[in-house]
Design brief:
709 residues; alpha/beta; eight-stranded parallel barrel; 19 strands; 44% helix; elongated
Amino acid sequence: ADGYSFTDLGLSQDKVVCHGHSIQCRVTSENPRNNFTPDYGRIEAFRPGEGFGIRLDSAAGFAGAMITPHYDSLLIKATSHAETFTFAAEKLYRALGEFRVRGVHTNIPFLLRVLAHPVFLEQKMATDFIDLHTELFAFPPNKDRANKLLRYMAEVKVNGHPMPGADPSKVPSHLHPVMPVYDPHTPPPAGWKQVLEAQGPKGFAKAVRDFPYTLLGDTTWRDAHQSLLATRMRTIDMATIAPATARALAGLYCLENWGGATFDVALRFLRECPWRRLETLRELVPNVPFQMLLRGANAVGYTSYPDNVVQEFCKEAVMAGMDIFRVFDSLNYVDNLLVGMEAVHKAGGVVQGEICYSGDLITDKKYNLEYYMKLAEKIVKQGETHVLGIKDMAGVMKPAAARLLVSSLRKEYPDMPIHVHMHDTGGISVASLLAAADAGADVIHGAIDSMSGNTSQPSIGALNTSINQIEKRNHKAVDVGGIMIQPIEDDKIIELSDYWDTMRDHYKPFEQGGRSPASDVFKNAIPGGQYTNLMFQSQSLGLAKQWKEIKKAYEEANEILGNVVKVTPSSKVVGDLAQFMVTNKLRREDFETRIDDLNLPKSVIEFLQGQLGQPHGGFPEPLRTRVLQRAGLQPIEGRPGKDLLPLDFFVLRRKLEEKYRYLAVQYGIKLTARDIISAALYPEVFDDYMKFREKYSDEVAFLPTEAFL
C-alpha cells in the first residue's frame, strides 16, 4: 500500500461493510477414513465441480497424474462466494459433491460433512469444533460404480468374457427384440396368484382340481434356458418381457423361474443375486404364481444341508415372492424328499411333491407302476402334498405310459391335483402330455415356442391350441371364487415367442443342444437339464469329438451304478462316471476286474457312500464295498443329513460381517439375511461373488447382455 496507513486511506472498522461471504476448501489426496493418511497412485479420473460463484485453483490434480508419497497433498483449491455465509456453504457443498476423483482417496467426504454441519452453518464453531463433533467422520461409502463398469466392459472387450462353456466360434446377436404392445398404465388381469392369496395353499389346490380345463405352466424363465442355454439367461432379459408376460399369460397355473441350477449359476457365472431376481420378477408379475424346483434335503445345492438351512431357505423364498415348490429327490428317496416338503409347509408355500420318472413303467421291472404308486402314496400321505407332480427329466415317458400312470393316480387320488412336467429330447412330449391331460392331469408344462423343443419342454403354443380344441374351451374367462381366470390366446404366445426368438440368439455361444429330436434318449436317458452342461464339460475335458461315445458310456455308467433315477445331483454322478470311462477307455467289465486300481471321480465315491441317500433297490455290490474300502470310508445308512447339527446363522453372520466389513465401510455393500443363506449353501461361490461385487459393482447386472458378454 505504498506505506499508507488505514487512516491515510480513510478506512476504519466502522466503515467496513460486508458485501458477501467466501469459503475456501483445500482438496487433498488424504484419506479421512484412515486418519487422513496421505494416499498415492495414479489419478484415473479427475472431474472438478464448477459453476457460478465457484473459483478453482489447480495444483497436482488432473487425470493421469501420478501422486507419489513425496509430495504436497494439495490437488486443487475450491472457493465459493455468495451474499450470505449459508449460501456460500451451499454452493461449495454442491461443487464438491460434483467432484469425481478416482484412483486416490481425497478429503472431500470430510469437507462435505463440515459444510453441511449445523454448527458450521450457524458460524458457532471454534478451534475444538472437530474434536467435539465426531459425527464429522461418519462418511457415506464411495461406490465408484461408473469406473468399475467401464473396467468390466474393457476387460470383456479386450480379453473376452471369462464365463466357461461359451463357444467362441458362435457370435451372439446384438439385434434388439420387438416388444409386444401393451398398456403399462393398466394393471395385469387377476390370476391364480390372487386365488392363492385369497384361499391359501389348500384352497388353491382345490380350485385347481375343480377347474374345468387343463391348465398350463411356463418354464421359459427356468428349465427351458437351463436345458437349452446352460442356465445362462440373465434377469434383465426376463424383467424386460415380464410386464408383457403378466398380461399375455395371466391365466397360467405358474411361471417357473427359480431353483434348480439357476441359483448357483446366478452367483457363479452371471454375477447377480438370485434373490434380487425373484423380487424383481415378483414386482413385475403380480398375478401369476411363481414356481421353483427344490431338491428336497439338498435345497438348491448338490449336497445335504442341516434341516434348518433348508427351512430358512424356503421361508425367505416365500417372503421374496415364491409360491409353488416342486419338491423332488434325485433318487426318489422319500426321507430326503420329506425334509423339503416339511420346510415348504412351514414356510406357507404350495407343496408340490414330485415323482421322478425313470425307465418305462410298462416294460421296466424296477421302475414299474407298482413302484410309482407306492412312491405316490408316501408323497400324498406322509408329505401331505397339495399337488402331486410327475417329473420326467429326460422326456422318456411315452404316451401309453403317461396315460397309464396318470389314470392310475387319478383313480387312487380323485381329489388331488396332478401336474406333469416333461422334456422333449425324444420328440414325444406333446403326445405324452396330451395323453396325460386326457387321463386326468390338471396341469402340464410347456415353454414359449422359440424356447421349446429338444432338451427343453414342448411348445406351449402347441399345447394351448391342442387343449383348447380337445376340451372345446371358448374365449371366456372362468370364475374361480370371484376371480376371473383369463384364457390364453395363441396370438399372445406368438408375440412373446418373437421376443425370445431374438433374445435366444444373444446367448448363442452357450447353445450346444441338438438341432432335432434324439431318439437315443430312450436308451441313455440323459436329463434335458444336464444335456448341454454335459456337452460343455466334455469339451473342457477335450472330449468334444467323442460325444457319441460319452452318451453310450452314460448308459453303461448308469447300469454300473445300479440303474438309478437320474436328475441333479444323481445325474451328475452318472455323467462324471461316463466321462471318466471315455477318458480312460474303460468298459463295464473293467469295473469287475480293475475296480481296485481305479481312482473314481469324487462324486461317484460320495454316491456309493450314501451321501445322496439310498437308491431304490440298494447300491450295487460288491462295487460299493470295494470302492469304500479302498477310500477308507464307512457307508452312510439312512438319510445323510439327519445327523448334521443345525447351522448357527448368528455365528455365520458375525463371521461374514467381519470378513466383508471393509466392503460395507468403503463401498456400502452390506450383507442381508438372504446373503447369509447364499453363503450357507455355496460358501466358496459366494466368496467369489463378493469379490466380483467389490471389483466391478452390482451394476454389472443391469448391463445389456451384449455388453455383459
